[in-house]
Amino acid sequence: MCGIFGYVGSGDICKTLYQGLKSLEYRGYDSAGVAVIGNSISFVKDAGTVDQVLSDLKLPARKAGIAHTRWATHGRPNQLNSHPHFDEKKKVAVTHNGIIENYRKLKEELQKRGHVFRSQTDTEVIPHLIDENLHLGEFEAFKKAVSMLKGSYAIAAIIDGSERVYFARRFSPLVLGVNGDYFLASDVVAFLRWTKKAVFIEDGEIGYIDEMGFHIEKDGVKVNRKPTTIQWNFEEAAKDGYDHFMLKEIFEQPKVIKQTLSSERFKGLATHLSTLDKLVVTSAGTSSYAGLAFKYISQLPIDTITASEFPALYRGGEILAISQSGETADTMTAIRYAKSLGAQVDALVNVVGSTLTRIADKTIYTHAGPEIGVAATKTFTSQLAALYALNSYMRGTEIPKIDVKPGLALNKDLKKLAMDISKSKSMFYLGRGQNYVTALEGALKLKEIAYIHAEAYQGGEMKHGPLALIEEGVPVVVINPQDSYRKKMLGNIEEVKSRGAFVIGFGEEGDDEMRALSNVFYGLPKTEVSPITYTVPLQLLAYHTAVVLGRNPDKPRNLAKSVTVE
Ligand code: F6R
């Protein structure tokens, strides 16, 4: 979703703001803008891509500036609604992520006092509030304005006359980068090319960066915090010769899963979980499928609750929250609610220092490295790998062998298949047991990046309604390894086939029955971790279909990498 970037330093301000913002593009956005301090505040902003709006950026800047990518919530993407926003005199420029819940009331009051608004955004109240309080001094004015806001925010502001970038955080991520120059960003990927030294800002904190360093305070008390070193590399966040980040990230999976399993850090949590009567897993989207897989493979009774439905369904118990970004608003709200009722929260997260890791009592990391493609790929299989490992430690058994290379080896064949299915209006994905999860994930990937309608069903459920939708040529992807469900799935394949479905079968090498029943068949070796093994070719199928259709798989329409609104 929206991305914030700020910079104070001796480098080329405009170039740095542009490069920082480029690195935040992956979060998803529809408008871009920057503001810098020179003799006065100058700015460029509009709807469009960072390149459309900000290439050839030449603004008279001295040492400080802010930049923003906006994902529209209040008001359409257009020039006026793009960030930064200003007071009438353009003494203050503000970028903001999140939602100011009391903005209508604040706006009415400000209008009564003569302030004129230009945009439909909630953000615009902030520069006006700062401006009104400037007689208190810059930082005091900023603090006063922030104290009047309700809702969620990460804010970056500049004020004409100084060389500072002010910031504040509540429920929306913000992190500083430090290397003699100072950076402010929604996530570390934005400044990785310059520094790996990061200072994470916590909820309720407010401060500024300037030439002298950084200042953070909470409730009027100075916070002393040392930078931590981020293990990610800038190169990991680059395309590395691949056409898209998504393809690169799919092919990174062998290495990533090794990284995930590289230490025994799951042991402690496994020992603890083994003592529980019940566990509640909460998460969203693809991460919720990882939670569902855990329910299928674990002997521990597990409730899975979609994060956005959490308060309606939660009846107590320890929580395992799963999130790649560690920032998903639905998941954060769910665990804050559980914590308010006294629950212990454990977390499985990819992004180091993210909000979830701050709220959770215990965090284990997937160590999948930065994932830039909006669609979750390597982070999903690394979540699954972590959950299989957790399960093995809980049972006292060996961690099963995980090999995703056979799925990757199908790349060329799946590219060909993508040409055929790209003409489809609708598709089905069927699986049983833990491979219902594989079906869900395969269908979601196709929907979100190829924009083809796809539904996942448990094999046995088709005859209870959806079978009515099967007609001549409808593609049905079937995931059917040789497990205890295989025979019943063969029956389900017959059902769709006899109604004209085009069956795309994924099963075990040498499974002649599956081969004979399928219109096209892809064989994979025997595996104990079929949701991992079989998800990989489904990622590739979705990727190639998106490319055939001319969609950009890295930036699917309407979607964002880090979903920070409920
Ligand atoms: C799908 C996808 C989303 C995320 C969901 C949760 O490819 O990426 O469905 O899985 O938004 O995100 P995290 O895992 O960051 O909480």
How would you describe this structure to a colleague?
By secondary structure, the chain is α/β, with parallel strands linked by helices. The chain folds into three domains: 3-230, Aminohydrolase, N-terminal nucleophile (Ntn) domain (Glutamine Phosphoribosylpyrophosphate, subunit 1, domain 1); 235-400, Glucose-6-phosphate isomerase like protein, domain 1 (Rossmann fold); 403-553, Glucose-6-phosphate isomerase like protein, domain 1 (Rossmann fold). The chain contains 19 helices and 25 strands. An eight-stranded antiparallel beta sheet has the order 3-2-4-1-10-9-11-15. The longest helix has 19 residues, at 530-548. Fructose -6-phosphate is lined by residues 284-287, 323-325, 328, 331, 375-376, 444, 448, 563.
What would you say about this model in short?
The strands form 4 sheets. The chain has an 8-stranded antiparallel beta sheet. A 7-stranded antiparallel beta sheet has the order 5-6-7-8-12-13-14. Strands 17-16-18-19-20 form a 5-stranded parallel beta sheet, sandwiched between helices. β16 (279-283), α9 (285-297) and β17 form a beta-alpha-beta unit. The chain is α/β, with parallel strands linked by helices.
